[in-house]
Prior knowledge:
CATH architecture of chain B: Orthogonal Bundle
CATH architecture of the largest domain in chain A: 3-Layer(aba) Sandwich
Oligomer: heterodimer
Strand content of chain A: 15-25%
Order of helices and strands of chain A: EEEHEEEHHHEHEHEEHHH
CATH class of the largest domain in chain A: Alpha Beta
Radius of gyration of chain B: 23 Å
Order of helices and strands of chain B: HHHHHHHHHHHH
Number of strands of chain A: 10
CATH topology of the largest domain in chain A: Rossmann fold
Number of domains of chain B: 1
Structural class of chain B: mainly alpha
Largest sheet of chain B: none
CATH superfamily of the largest domain in chain A: P-loop containing nucleotide triphosphate hydrolases
Strand content of chain B: under 5%
Amino acid sequence: MSAIIFENVYRYFIRDGRSFPALDGIDLTVADKEVVALVGPSGCGKTTCLRLAAGFELPTKGRVTVGGQQVIGPGPDRAVVFQQFALFPWKSVEENIAFGLRNQGAAASTRQERISAIIKLMGLEGYETAYPHQLSGGMQQRVAIARAYVLDPEALLMDEPFGALDAQTRIVMQEELVRIARVNPRTVLFITHAVDEAVYLADRVAVMTRRPGRIKEILDVRSVRKAERWNDHERIEDVMDLESFVHLRTHIWRSLREEKMEAAP
Amino acid sequence: MASPSQRPPSKLEVFVLGFIGLAGFVGLWLAASTSGYVPRQFLPTPFDVLARAIHLLTSPFAGATLPVHLARSLERYACGVALAAAIGVPLGLAMGWYRWLDDIVTPVFDGLRFIAPIAWVPFAALWFGTGIGGPIMIIFSGAFPPCLISAYRGARFVDSKYIEAAQMLGTSNLRTVAEVLLPASFPSIVAGLRVGAGLGWQSLVGAELIVASAGVGYMMVQGQSNISTPTVMAGMLAIGLVGLLIDVALRQMEARVRRRRGLA
């Protein structure tokens, strides 16, 4: 079991001697092998949530557990895919993917086996010796996902994983992620600006309020997906045309718009 | 500062202007030394200096030819700069990673770094002798600060996303310093090495003031005691030219590093 659980999490930032609330009591559970998307107006604390689960920051109050373990720092059981990829520019594709495995002290042969498998899965064959700056944004993000997946982490944390990609590449990568998730399901928490993306990829979508962030509502996409047989459609645009998809998307849009309206002076 | 109305000069213009500057400098020098106001013995013409330098290429002065003096100088220089890089870069990186080390070293470093290499000469001679140790220490004192500062600044300003990526991949401290901080700050380190190499070379004559065997500085000191101004100036010419060559070589290395990283 590798659930991600936020228990009454508060996070304050201190600036100029004053304390600003960023998260105001987050309760959220991402069940084992479940994909949850976090959406919300900008500055609502989505990224802070993800960073707390990653262990880059610690909650001011409350706690975050992953797989039953309280998060006290970053670690390879919670692999992160960054918006700006954060690949090591001085290492080749293969070396980037191997970096985490080498930390685990795996034998060279097992390491090579796992690297080859993930390179194949992510469609990176032929790019093993390329350097990140020689690759397109989409290819770089494939490497970043491979680098996270190869560790076989309990949880995968993705911060706007496709935010830096152009619209077409984005769609390819979204379909790709669904394909990989079918082969190799993971507990995933991901952040996105794109409501389409959230509804298409997630089992549940959590909508946050404006700052200080709270969970406003959680929508169960999975049951709709099953009932309306979204998985019968291979292409993302076909799914996005379905009435049930449009309905969910519109609902989330309205919910987000309310937050933005209230935020206006 | 170029005024906005000025267009950038073409390559040819830059070359011509540079040539005019150099020619003007040599011309003034020539005029001064042939004017008769200054004895030729104290201000030889550029041609005298050049002739002396060419002469020194093959015939020994103060026990060795100019190339041999240069070779001995480069030996000391290479040792001093290598030592400065070998200590300065790792220490700078470690200071960038461990705050406590930064807090320990910085006051000592700041206290010492304004002592110019030449000011180390008497101390170096007393402590390390006039053989190989003293001169190396003086060159080291010139080259060390830029090595340390550039590695430190490089490590401190590494994009936090690389450090976070390393952390979430479960990387140990040692490996983070060696495989993330070092390569991430490599462009900064190479720039610092270039400055350090330049300062080290500039400290050379100071270092060789105390040397009693061979080296360009030693040759120049001997030239001074023999009142041979052309020899002194030939030494200066050699130092200037070799310094320029070192800088050009390191500049190219820096450019290559940046290109490979996709920075330029």
